[in-house]
Design brief:
Distance between the termini: 43 Å
Oligomer: single chain
Helix content: 25-40%
Shape: globular
Largest sheet: 6 strands, mixed
Order of helices and strands: HEEHEHHEHEE
Radius of gyration: 15 Å
Amino acid sequence: LHVQAGTAALLLWIAAQPVARAAEPLRLIVVVPWSQSVGNLSGGDLRRIYIGEMTRWPDGRRIVPVMLPARSRESEALLKRIVKMSTIDFAQEWISVVFRGRAPAPPMIAVTASAALDILASHPDAIAVISDVEVPSGTRVTRVHGRLPRAQKSPRSG
């Protein structure tokens, strides 16, 4: 039953939102809770997290990937630039991952970047890929390939 519910949620995620387009390029950032010790990921690590191959942080805790709706600019960019899969291939991959028991569920879906940040606030092992927005205190922008897209604030400075 859990697999069916996860599969149904993933399929609904695919069809949930209208396609959003904009002329300017989208700058993505990878955000984790401030308490998460991972400060740098490779692009390969990020891809493995989002296709269910890498399911645990170095300390052994389960990674909780968070995404925006399937047809959002952020998710489209994540799938194209990092995951390198179409939306349908991504959904099929997660159906397989959950069915085979490699992960308990597909990525959590947040309606907005703000909702994704709320999930990070309540899940110390979460990770989200969102557009370059003001990052509130309590979260950190994670380096990808050693690069940090913007300065970050500690929880005490915000």
